């Protein structure tokens, strides 16, 4: 039976600095590891809303925002946009959604992202959510590079020069975040080098126990 402390912890997990209770899964992995592809499957089967930090930043860049030029340059250089920008975009998207279950894809991407989302006092608009778990798509660099170069979605960062920089950022800045969550027992690691359908079989095993929505 759950204790009062368990109940309080669950409340803390579910509450957020947005105006509703939400369940959040962070989806992490290297560039081209298949995060977006698998999130689309999870949305269909388990009723989550997919929020990609990269997609939100690209939309913000194209919206004529005052941050547009900065975002464009940071993405071209494969670096990480300051957390306050990304956190606000995520917060707004979560508030605007009618759903209460979110896949946050590509965030937190470095320790600064992580600190910003955890530290309720640092920013007025922090999310402050402890993830249910972190879904980690583990894929070889060779395979990720091949996938990105074949993606053909017109992304300005899908070129060899930026890909190299994105891989460096992933190793230097993103992997430590995954290691941090791993040390807290939060990481569910998936072998993402396999074909899409096989990867999703492994993903389903992670989500099925959590969800009452029947897969179809
Ligand atoms: N398991 C897979 N096997 C082969 N190709 C895949 C697999 N998963 C995704 N792809 C393809 O690889 C490319 C990258 O996938 P996707 O966009 O989902 O990756 P991502 O992790 O979201 O990348 P990014 O971090 O750059 O946004 C896409 O063209 C996608 O169709
Ligand atoms: N938390 C994040 C996430 C992404 N970015 C920038 O966007 C680029 C593309 O992200 P994808 O997840 O779509 O690959 C990424 O390389 C970063 O430049 C970010 O700054 N912060
Ligand atoms: Mg993606």
UniProtKB/TrEMBL annotation:
Chain sites annotated for binding a ribonucleoside 5'-phosphate: 58, 79-81, 106-109, 155, 166
Domain of life: Eukaryota
Top-level enzyme category: transferase
Keywords assigned: ATP-binding, Cytoplasm, Kinase, Nucleotide-binding, Nucleus, Pyrimidine biosynthesis, Transferase
Compartment annotation: Cytoplasm; Nucleus
Catalytic activity: dCMP + ATP = dCDP + ADP; UMP + ATP = UDP + ADP; CMP + ATP = CDP + ADP
Positions bound to ATP: 32-37, 151, 194
Cofactor(s) the protein requires to work: Mg(2+)
Primary location recorded for the protein, binned into one broad class: cytoplasm
Binding residues for CMP: 113
InterPro entries: Adenylat/UMP-CMP_kin (IPR000850), Adenylat_kinase_CS (IPR033690), P-loop_NTPase (IPR027417), UMP_CMP_kinase (IPR006266)
Cofactor binding, per record: Binds 1 Mg(2+) ion per monomer.
Record's function text: Catalyzes the phosphorylation of pyrimidine nucleoside monophosphates at the expense of ATP. Plays an important role in de novo pyrimidine nucleotide biosynthesis. Has preference for UMP and CMP as phosphate acceptors.
Note on domains (UniProt): Consists of three domains, a large central CORE domain and two small peripheral domains, NMPbind and LID, which undergo movements during catalysis. The LID domain closes over the site of phosphoryl transfer upon ATP binding. Assembling and dissambling the active center during each catalytic cycle provides an effective means to prevent ATP hydrolysis.
Protein name: UMP-CMP kinase
The organism of origin for this protein: Erythranthe guttata
